[in-house]
Amino acid sequence: MKNSNGFPEGFLWGGATAANQFEGAYNEGGKGLSTADMVRFIPKEERGEGFSLDVSGKEIEAILAGKVDAVFPKRFGVDFYHHYKEDIALLAEMGFKVFRLSINWARIFPNGDDTIPNEEGLAFYDDVFDECLKYGIEPLVTLSHYETPLNLTLKYNGWADRQVIDFFVQYAETVFKRYKDKVKYWLTFNEINIIALSPYTGGGVLVEEAENPMELSYQAGHHQFVASALATKIGHEINPELKIGCMLARMTTYPETNNPKDIIKAQEENQLNLFFTDVQARGEYPGYMDRYFNENNITIHKERGDDEILKAYPVDFISFSYYMSSTTSSNPSEDQVSGNFMGGIKNTYLETSDWGWQIDPIGLRWTLNDFYDRYQLPLFIVENGLGAYDKVEEDGSIHDDYRIDYLQKHIEQMKEAVLDGVDLMGYTSWGAIDLVSASTSEMSKRYGYVYVDQDDEGKGTLERSRKDSFFWYKKVIETNGMDLSK
């Protein structure tokens, strides 16, 4: 039932995190190394053009041999592992209804292909989920969020090898059984489309020696599709009440002009993005990909029964991240902007963040309507937020009006979409508490309502403190989105 403000009763307000950016304790509790543990911090002045998140096999070899003198921020995150009670209490103080977090696969199966799970890792998440439930907070848990066990990369080249499907299914079955009465909402793969854009990040795949890197990436994506469908099947068998969704990095693309060539170009880019949800929600490969695969010499190897598996076990809901939109042209200019995994022509109608991301709240309303028209499934916004520099005043306060302004405008457009008829389950802004950036591995790019005293090199007290946005979001949740005023 909707209130007069648009948002339904029981709307799931909260925030989102990821184990590889947040949890820390990379070598404690029996945890194995993950691909994220190999990602080093590179200062802004050293990134240059074409900066990539991927890590090569040679780099991994050098890191493991101790030949790389660097900071690896995703190994320590913001130490949620030792601060989870304090952190969850802060979320409860804000009134969170849901908390999105991920399980670090290598904490449960340290090598990924182990036959017996690590009990100490399972017990840690028991404690975390119990702490959430103590406050009435529903955990929303991602099974794989950019943290593939490193051994799977070294031994199998990650998701490029079909055997990894079986390892993932064993992992999913293990945690579904363990937490079947504690976790209702699950996501299989975070931003599953990233496998095609950054195969190491999205699936622990090394492509530097591949004859056709694009083909290898899409083949790995196919293996993830099958694994996701099988996990959905098993989850529903273990507990029919579980709600299992997919998750897409939505890269909404506009044509620069009404030139039909620009419109076709934008349609093609949107299709390449929506291909991943088409498969997971509709249960089959869309016809438009045939041409794309042919033109790029891509052949997807499917085993007998794959298509039937995809068709039989689609997801229950669609979740996605939305930070910005992009603009494309059949004749692009040199005035370009960029964001995580996406770029495009500068849209003169939009403002940009400190990192050059174009801020487009109205695009979120368009995206929600487009998604719902296409799939007629419940939607969940599980990432949306503003990365910015935050200043701590002498009295310890943090005045982040710019963040409040960003979130306020996006929530207003969410409300419009719900009034348009969109079935929106909830909203978990990124991130609930400051954490290490996914793209740059820096701390200075902050998103949270809670400030963490730590710098880009991991130095600081780790003390948590409330920003102005903390109190603002508390009011938003209390009023179910009725009061968005500063």
Automatic annotation (TrEMBL):
Recorded superkingdom: Bacteria
Gene3D superfamilies membership: Glycosidases
Class of this enzyme: hydrolase
A GO MF term: 6-phospho-beta-glucosidase activity
InterPro entries, sorted: GH, GH_1_N_CS, Glyco_hydro_1, Glyco_hydro_1_AS
Positions annotated as active site in the UniProt record: 383
Keyword DNA-binding: no
Keyword vocabulary terms for this entry: Glycosidase, Hydrolase
SUPFAM superfamilies: (Trans)glycosidases
A Pfam entry, by short name: Glyco_hydro_1
PROSITE patterns: GLYCOSYL_HYDROL_F1_1, GLYCOSYL_HYDROL_F1_2
Keyword hit for Heme: no
Enzyme Commission code: 3.2.1.86
Stored NCBIfam families: PRK09593.1, PRK09852.1
Family: Belongs to the glycosyl hydrolase 1 family.
Protein known as: 6-phospho-beta-glucosidase
Annotated organism of origin: Carnobacterium inhibens
